[in-house]
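Escalated from tier 1: 5-O-phosphono-beta-D-ribofuranosylamine holo job.
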Amino acid sequence: MTAPVPLVPLPARLAVFLSGRGSNFEALARAAAAGEVPARIALVASDRPEAPGLARARELGLSAIGLSAKELGGKAALEERLCELVLGHGIDLICLAGFMRILSPSFVDRFPLRILNIHPSLLPSFPGLHAQEQAVRYGVRVSGVTVHFVDAGTDTGPVVTQRAVPVLEDDDEDSLAARILPIEHETYVEAVRRVLAGGWRVEGRRVIFS
Ligand code: GRF
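Tier 2 regenerated the structure:
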């Protein structure tokens, strides 16, 4: 059996977009540095110049760029700048990691099946904000993590990988989020590895790995 043809020449050049703490970014950066994913982080970009994740990226010596939609003149200008950065840095795959903006169809359409997102629930349950709180309120016994390709909807793109996490009876949003977070880190690394390895296709909504 021959190995699948990788999605892009390896090591791949990743961009991470984040808006906050950046723990998923750090998990990806650690995995890349350790050779656990055949990639290097070539760009970290944020719509919040003060995001702690951006400061951490700078400490790691990475190219880390904060953009303000307000200063640039709105969402379209911000996305245009992000697009220029992605093209200018020769990015192969964009990983959204706590990026708190919905990318418009015009941005997403420029990078089909080249943008991943991580979401702290088993989609399609509990999309959008406060997924862990939604899960606790609903009373589900199992929630989890989803990594999916990004399409023009909110947390609606084809699912790459999912992991389940139990919800306990005394959980609140914070305790469930704390149980899910380390699983997010593992799941994102695994998903990036699988996507970069290639040999997959998308049929309808289904991502089929050979
Ligand atoms: C994570 O829970 C992620 O799933 C969600 O936003 C949070 C970001 O956390 N989209 P961090 O900034 O990666 O620590």
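Residues 143 and 165 are 5 Å apart (CA to CA).
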